[in-house]
């Protein structure tokens, strides 16, 4: 039985396609990815822009709504919670809906939520709108990952997911800074109007590019999806998703005090350093996705090891401004470069439950971000001071080596079993 967006390679047994890829025996990649993959990347660009654009508008929002800045920050927190809960929940609720309809409905709710924020005057209403928007974001991201994998095919699924993820990374480089700049020019509500309009345009593109599902799409059931999640390898991948993101963003969330207090970088130059991190993350997502189709386990282990070493170097060399700037950019490259490969592995290991597996990776990434940033905040107030978040990030990132190495060992044993 095939399900929505199934990307399991039928010609290979469980884990066989993965091992063949490691040996360089995967089928030849298509020269170009389908247009729909680029359209889905536009959607993820909008999703990540709205998640973090509030951070650059907090003072304006707080002043207009007559709340404190920490209270206004709840608009970010409630969005993260909505993503954690909403991705798997909405994946199940929309399981029997056509892929194209699900994506368009998600963008419609996304646009409506932004219109409410753009015109609303009640802080409670804005919180509710952000939560509902996050549910739609989780649904879009989970289904978009599967749709991109299916469109690209097994030989290029990681590359396609790298491009879709790059849309989100580009949000940190372009979308968030532009949103903050526009908010200062036309008021904080302006970016939300713009995002609503862009979401409607993206829905129109989805309608034109996402193909119809196969005739057996409606046979999928919630029970079959949940049953397929018994794979131990899948849960190892989800653990890696949480720790890799948690480690990197534990340090990144509080990088400004480190840059100004330890490295001696002027506060006005901090945004440029953050842009460097974003460019590194964008490049890492593209490169990691491309290499991950051929050697997924090499990429995930190398990325985890690289992020750990870089975070440790930041702890030790944070007194040197130029070294810190370079290390932060490299952290974006290595720290987030394996994400598309992890998503691809989760979809593959889930077998009959690709949509739910994709949704759970979204939840795992956001859970790691929430937990890592919370622990890092406590470390910032400790005797470690500004370097505390980087220390926390180093420890969490190092934990990623455990599940990634275990997955590689399991796959090697599964490949060797038929030969014995």
From TrEMBL:
InterPro entries documented for this protein: MFS, MFS_dom, MFS_Efflux_Transporters, MFS_trans_sf
SUPFAM superfamilies: MFS general substrate transporter (SSF103473)
Membrane topology qualifier: Multi-pass membrane protein
Pfam families named in the record: MFS_1
Region entry Disordered, spans: 1-25
Bilayer-crossing regions: 35-58, 70-91, 103-125, 131-148, 160-186, 192-211, 232-255, 261-287, 299-319, 325-343, 355-375, 387-410
Keywords: Cell membrane, Membrane, Transmembrane, Transmembrane helix
Domain of life: Bacteria
Domain Major facilitator superfamily (MFS) profile: 36-415
Compartments, record wording: Cell membrane
PANTHER family assigned to the protein according to its UniProt record, in alphabetical order: CHLORAMPHENICOL EFFLUX PUMP RV0191, PURINE EFFLUX PUMP PBUE
Protein name as catalogued: MFS transporter
Organism: Nonomuraea insulae
Highest classification ranks of the organism: Bacteria, Bacillati, Actinomycetota, Actinomycetes, Streptosporangiales
């Amino acid at each position: 039985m095939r399900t929505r967006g199934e990307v399991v390679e039928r010609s290979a047994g469980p884990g066989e396609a993965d091992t063949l890829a490691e040996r360089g025996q995967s089928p030849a990649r298509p020269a170009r990815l389908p247009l729909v993959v680029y359209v889905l990347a536009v959607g993820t660009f909008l999703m990540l822009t709205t998640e973090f654009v509030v951070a650059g508008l907090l003072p304006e929002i707080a002043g207009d709504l007559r709340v404190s800045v920490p209270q206004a920050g709840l608009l970010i927190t409630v969005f993260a919670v909505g993503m954690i809960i909403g991705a798997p929940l909405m994946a199940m609720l929309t399981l029997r809906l056509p892929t194209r309809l699900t994506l368009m409905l998600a963008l419609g709710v996304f646009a409506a939520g932004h219109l409410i924020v753009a015109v609303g005057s009640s802080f409670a209403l804005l919180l509710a709108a952000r939560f509902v928007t996050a549910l739609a974001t989780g649904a879009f991201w989970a289904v978009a990952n599967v749709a991109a994998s299916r469109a690209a095919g097994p030989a290029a699924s990681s590359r396609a997911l790298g491009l879709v993820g790059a849309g989100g990374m580009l949000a940190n480089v372009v979308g968030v800074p532009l949103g903050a700049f526009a908010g200062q020019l036309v008021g904080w509500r302006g970016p939300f109007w713009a995002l609503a309009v862009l979401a409607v345009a993206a829905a129109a593109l989805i309608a034109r590019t996402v193909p119809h599902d196969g005739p057996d799409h409606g046979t999928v059931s919630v029970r079959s999806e949940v049953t397929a999640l018994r794979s131990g390898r899948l849960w190892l991948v989800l653990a890696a998703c949480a720790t890799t993101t948690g480690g990197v963003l534990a340090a990144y969330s509080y990088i400004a005090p480190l840059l100004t207090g330890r490295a001696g970088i002027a506060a006005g130059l901090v945004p440029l350093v953050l842009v460097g991190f974003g460019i590194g993350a964008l490049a890492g997502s593209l490169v990691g996705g491309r290499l991950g189709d051929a050697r997924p386990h090499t990429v995930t282990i190398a990325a985890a090891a690289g992020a750990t070493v870089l975070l440790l170097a930041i702890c030790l060399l944070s007194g040197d401004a130029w070294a810190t700037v370079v290390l932060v950019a490299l952290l974006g490259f290595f720290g987030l470069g394996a994400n598309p490969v992890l998503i691809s592995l989760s979809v593959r290991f889930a077998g009959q439950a690709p949509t739910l597996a994709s949704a759970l990776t979204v939840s795992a990434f956001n859970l790691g971000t929430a937990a890592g940033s919370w622990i890092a905040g406590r470390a910032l107030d400790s005797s470690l001071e500004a370097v505390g978040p980087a220390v926390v990030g180093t420890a969490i990132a190092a934990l990623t080596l455990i599940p990634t190495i275990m997955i590689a060992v399991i796959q090697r044993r599964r490949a060797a079993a038929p030969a014995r």
